[in-house]
Amino acid sequence: MITIKSQREVELMKVSGSIVAAVLDMIGEEVREGMTTLELDTMAEACIRDHGAVPSFLHYRPKGDLSVKPYPATLCVSINEEVVHGVPSKKRIVKEGDIVSVDCGAYKGGYHGDSARTYIIGDVPSEVRKLVTVTKECLERGIAQAVAGNRLHDISAAVEEHARSNGFSVIENMVGHGIGSELHEEPAVPNYGRKNTGVKLREGMALAIEPMIAMGRSRNAVSKNGEWVAVTEDGNPSAHFEHTIIVRKDRAEIMTLS
User: Fold this and answer.
1) What are the binding residues for a divalent metal cation?
2) Which of 22, 52, 61, 116 has its CB surrounded by the most CB atoms within 10 Å?
3) What residues pair up with 214 in beta bridges, in sequence order?
């Protein structure tokens, strides 16, 4: 069931969203060559807890699915060909030329905020830099369609059109989602689709819109050795950006801006 958030709920989501934004701002300042992804995770957890919140991802697993081990960290830190769900580790070291996608969630006052950014470490090939830029633009174009009266897949179509027109692939089996008192709520928000299809958007819907865009021809993210992390099918780099937004009449309200 898709829920419509009251203004009280929106205000609570703003608090959680601002905490996530603060974490990602901090990561942007601190991430550098030679760091481990576990160091980033430790910093993020401390920041979230200092704000009186708890990490949304830590110990998360899909409801009712006992076959999935709870997620063991605060952040998802996915490097290069890793699309999503990269588990922080003291063995994984950030290197010159990497692109590092960081996904973060925080829970406070009964509501979640969820956002992701991709950071460029040092010098990268121009096409990889373009990938990161275009993925961020895909998010912006998707958000622009998140207004009352539009259809859900207007968001999806805007993301897909911009990615493909720039020569990149859309990861189709990883999607955005509704969000609120639960981290993942209805509806699913795919990054591909046809305009004028899907449920009608209503003011007060809360969505986490998150384009995952790749170089090469990968259409799916595939599990790596049965672990949480999912990688591109062909080993090419992938980028990821995400905001939590509230559907409004004229312009979406973004909960996770800096």
Assistant:
1) 103, 114, 177, 210, 242
2) 116
3) 169, 238
